[in-house]
Design goal:
binds flavin mononucleotide, 353 residues, eight-stranded parallel barrel, alpha/beta, TIM Barrel
């Protein structure tokens, strides 16, 4: 199936602008979503292996999730779940709707199997997303809702902006991600800094602890952190019982040919893998099992997913791999994990490390 995608469909899709293709894919997924038998057919084709894991108190049917940014506006969770994902992270959503940066803002680096995007949190906003999620009902897999800051909101007002969005979205997510690491919102990454982060995390956790259902919160981090910053950040997360997603896209270009250096935005896919894995290994050592970890960045097959689980991720997420390998990537990863003995028991006994 992956072979057919790479040989035929990908060649056709790659002749069009990346965002135009993406919009068409989401539109088709929405149409399929409204056709009951289509969901069943996709589920049968995907034939996902069950590898149950429990992380942050949530039971996942398998550890492979969809990364944020693919379904920013909560349009097609039902059909995406049928592809075999163990969970979906939707968004990034901001409190108020915003347009993001001017197009073109997504670029394929075909020969490197990477993507550069500078979308800038284009999204319908938390209120509309909440309405959609309410109308659609449960997707059958846990949903993470990824929250970012509105571009016109100052760093000082950011905590309020995040908490308001969290309040609106809280009934509809199983976990929440605070995105402080997109390189495409001015100064967003300054929120990694210890005091600023505390000013964001404290009101978020105050809100969560006041709720009858206490849902897990993750912080999605940049792969560009210095060791000292990383140490503070992991301590902040562990102290407050938060999880971490490692990592968002990179602004580094040094490892790519010069023609790509002038493209602004976040780089993902294969050229991110080594950078994200290095960061994951450090975070895993610092957290020492005291914080749930989700690994993302450059997963294109079973071995690259297994590598992140071995480095300490409890769950993994994919995005660019879907663009280059096609929608049945999830199934291929799960088959590989099953074959190589990944399961919750082996994991707990450190036999899958
Ligand atoms: C086109 C595009 C849009 C993205 N949008 C978001 C986003 O809105 N929020 C977010 O947290 N991450 C976003 N990401 C980052 C991914 O969630 C993921 O962290 C990153 O791409 C690394 O994984 P990958 O190498 O499998 O793509 C986006 C990535 C791409 C390629």
């Amino acid at each position: 199936m992956g072979f057919l995608y790479r040989q035929i469909l990908r060649k056709i899709l790659f002749t069009f602008d990346p965002e135009t293709v993406h919009d068409a894919v989401i539109k088709s997924a929405r149409t399929l979503q409204s056709i009951g038998p289509a969901q069943l057919i996709i589920e049968l084709m995907a034939r996902a292996t069950e590898i149950p894991v429990t992380v942050a108190g949530i039971r996942f049917r398998n550890p492979v999730g969809l990364a944020a940014g693919f379904d920013k506006n909560c349009e097609a969770p039902h059909i995406l779940a049928r592809l075999g994902f163990g969970f979906l992270e939707l968004g990034t959503l901001t409190l108020r709707a915003q347009n993001g940066n001017p197009r073109p803002r997504v670029f394929r680096l075909g020969e490197h199997q990477g993507i550069i995007n500078r979308m800038g949190f284009n999204n319908v906003g938390a209120y509309e997303a909440a309405r959609r999620l309410e109308r659609l009902g449960p997707a059958g897999v846990p949903l993470g809702l990824n929250i970012g800051k509105n571009a016109d909101c100052s760093l000082e007002d950011a905590p309020k902006n995040y908490v308001e969005a969290l309040k609106v979205l809280y009934p509809f997510g199983d976990y929440f991600t605070l995105n402080i690491s997109s390189p495409n919102t001015l100064q967003l990454r300054a929120l990694h800094q210890k005091e600023r982060l505390a000013r964001l995390l404290d009101p978020v956790m105050d809100f969560v602890s006041g709720q009858a259902a206490k849902k897990p919160v993750f912080v999605k981090i940049s792969p560009e952190l210095e060791d000292a910053e990383l140490k503070d950040l992991v301590s902040s997360a562990v102290e407050r019982g938060l999880g971490l997603i490692v990592a968002n896209t990179t602004v580094r270009r040094g490892h790519l040919p010069a023609r790509w250096h002038s493209y602004e935005g976040g780089l993902s896919g294969r050229p991110l893998r080594g950078i994200a894995n290095e960061m994951l290994e450090k975070v895993s050592a610092l957290a020492a099992g005291r914080a749930p970890l989700i690994g993302a960045g450059g997963i294109f097959d079973g071995p690259s997913a297994a590598e992140k689980l071995r480095l300490g991720a409890d769950l993994v997420q994919v995005y660019s791999g879907l663009i280059y390998e096609g929608p049945f990537l999830v199934r291929a990863i799960l088959k590989y994990l099953e074959k190589t003995g990944f399961n919750a028991q082996n994991r707990a006994k450190n036999k899958f490390r």
